[in-house]
Amino acid sequence: GQCAARRTAVIFPPGIRRTGPSSAMAEKSQLCSVWVGSETGILKGVSLSKKQAFNFSEASTLSRDQEVCVLSWGDPLETEVLLGCVSGEVRTFSTEKGRYIEHRQCSEPGLGRFIGLAVYDSSLVTCVESGLLKVWPEGSEDCQVEVAVGQGVCRMRQDPMQRHRVATGGKENPLKVWDLQKPEAPIFTAKNVRNDWLDLRVPVWVKDLQFIPGSDKIVTCTGHHQVRVYDPSCPTRRPVLETTYEEYPLTALSLTPDHSSVVVGNTHGQLAIIDLRKGLVRGCLKGLAGSVRGLQCHPSLPLVASCGLDRFLRVHSLTDRTLQHKVYLKSRLNCLLLSSRDNLEEGPAGLVGEEGVKEEEEGQGDEVWDTMETVTDRASKRAAEESEGRTGKKKRKAAK
Question: 3-state DSSP call for residue 286?
């Protein structure tokens, strides 16, 4: 019963042709190169070429149970976006048609939020905070595999090179690597680091993780501002590299295109590029004002996209660390998905959306500040008042 899923396809009544609105939404969705999930349950597509953002929502009234927790690509061609919602529903959005094409109930709200989605051999892989990892075959209403990976899971990610492998980690739940072909037990379980200088146990809190392509290594970031690299072939099962960044919990990470560094973000809106060879901070990316929730580097271009609670989508350059794009999206943002195409700033010609969000330039003032009176010092203010008083007296004398 717990494994059963409800699959519903979006079906329109016979005789109704979706020509007008659907074609317009399809044109808008094909423009988008960044997809962002919000707390209000809206999927937002951003076109960096047109500097516009579009809302894709099928509900007339928005509610908190539709909040988007995690995003993932549904196919290698990136024509489908998978959305994991707080309600336990997984939606499939078609970027070619500009609408939702499938809904699937894969969990219950009481089991926790989705912390990872993946596709393996045309099957859907889901994982929730309570530690239930399930594999849903295509076209089936029952899950094929159900694994308990432990309580308090914060993240589940798939190995991009060996897609049958996933890694999980969370609060007091160490890094584990699972083989979905043999899910009875993890193929690797990390061992906690040695006690600190007071001989006290170091708490475990894995917040995000990612497989390093071209090797078996895995990089993680923790809620205790640590960045660690694990090598499953190492017999000690402890980190082969460990460094720290600032003093606030790290919330997200993403590997740079050359896989030699990792970009991490924390709860205070700080972004840093950390070298994985020496564990040193190579530079910081500035401009964020709220907690970082979503972070992704482009697989080939030196760009990193970030979003969070300050409601902005930002794209920074990894070469000179400058802000390339900044778009206000009106809602608090949870996650993002960056297209892997090499022409992020080039959209199809002639496709211009109607509901754009203007890009804010760095240093651009707010209209509120323009309407406020300039505060002067006391001396200049007194002189101004005296001059106004003298002119008033002269006018009264002239009137007499």
Answer: coil
